Amino acid sequence: MKNYFSSQFKLGILGGGQLGKMMLYDTRKYDIQTYVLDPSNEAPSKVACNHFTQGSLMDYETVLNFGRKVDVLTFEIESVNIDALETLEKEGIKVYPQPSVLRNIQDKGVQKDFYKKHNIPTASYEKYAFAKAVKESPQWLDNLPFIWKSCTGGYDGKGVSVVRTASDLDTLPEVPCIAEKMIPFKNELAVIVARNVSGEVKTYPVVEMEFHPEANQVEYVICPARIDETVAQKARDIAEKVSNAFGHVGLLAVEMFQTENDEILVNEVAPRPHNSGHYSIEGSFTNQFEQHLRAILDLPLGNTDSKVASVMVNLVGDEGYTGPVKYENIEHIMGMDGVTPHIYGKKETRPFRKMGHVTIVDHNIEKARTVAEKVKGSIKVIAQ
């Protein structure tokens, strides 16, 4: 085995946001030398890595030159220059997840085609060059409402809209997009699958996601999901099928719908640590960030079982506030049993910006969910 620990081995991370920062906590635990590239000089990861470079993740030369400094390269965001990753891979740099995997994920239209090709259940859809083309398609206007998604650039609920009337399309950007059938569902679920270079695979428990009705952002992640075991097994099986189809190295978060008749449909995937796995820091034997490192370094994968029931609450900027951040009433939630806040280190807040999260653990999932509600009602992310 290669000596990764207390050695000259170099790990590179494209993206310096909160996901990178939390991954770096585990590289510190193992004394792995780290390099981070991010466009912002105030990126949260800057304080946690050994070497920080400011630069564009979408610029070919910037990513290429950065990648040549490291032995293994990974990313915490999908919006990176894939051409540069492919060149680095040809030059012998280990890039995980592989550029070929990211090619099938970065564009949501390509991602949906991938599901269709591999017989993975997903909502019916059509691809369009721009939003106006959707308006000219009677199959959608005769079947309102439906879901509109931009093919690229969407994150944290951005780039997704519910189209209820034809005039709603007039407000959407003229970019490549997909129109997708709106599926009535009971629950939104997620499963994180880890795969190392040698092909060892481990799956985390199915989690349940509750979304903010307006921002289309996850508000709560509940582990384990409060669903029947037969449905949970179906979700795990489909997540593993998706994982096998991609053949990724690293983590793959698979977001799914549980329909009203208990079928499972894949919504989308993320080839990296994911918001639905943050609970694992306090709740699991092996948290998702350590697991991603184990996978991309071809180390044995850790135990994915939960030590305790967990609920994660996202801390996002309150509506009506923009400016230097203040976490009002954070001391109140820190007095609650089983509550652990994580502050990401972003200096400026704005409405619905992800600024941190709070994990609540308890042996009773319903008690944890009740405390999560209290946490949500107590802490406010406002501007000073």
Structure notes:
The chain has about 375 residues and is of the alpha+beta class. The protein folds into three domains: about 90 residues, Rossmann fold; about 60 residues, ATP-grasp fold, A domain (Dna Ligase, domain 1, 2-Layer Sandwich); about 200 residues, ATP-grasp fold, B domain (D-amino Acid Aminotransferase, Chain A, domain 1). About 25% of the residues lie in helices and about 30% in strands. It contains twelve helices and 21 strands. The strands form four sheets. Strands 10, 11, 12, 13, 14, 15, 16, 18 and 20 form a nine-stranded antiparallel sheet that branches. Strands 3-2-1-4-5 form a five-stranded parallel sheet, with helices on both faces. α1 packs across α10 and α2 runs parallel beside α3. The longest helix is centred in the middle third of the chain and has 18 residues. The model has no long low-confidence stretch (mean pLDDT about 95).
Number of domains: 3
Task: Give average pLDDT, whole number.
Answer: 96
Distance between the termini: 50 Å
Largest sheet: 9 strands, antiparallel
Over all CA atoms, what is the radius of gyration? 20 Å
How much beta, percentage-wise? Answer: 25-35%
- General shape: globular
Supply the CATH architecture of the largest domain: 2-Layer Sandwich
CATH homolog superfamily of the largest domain:
ATP-grasp fold, B domain
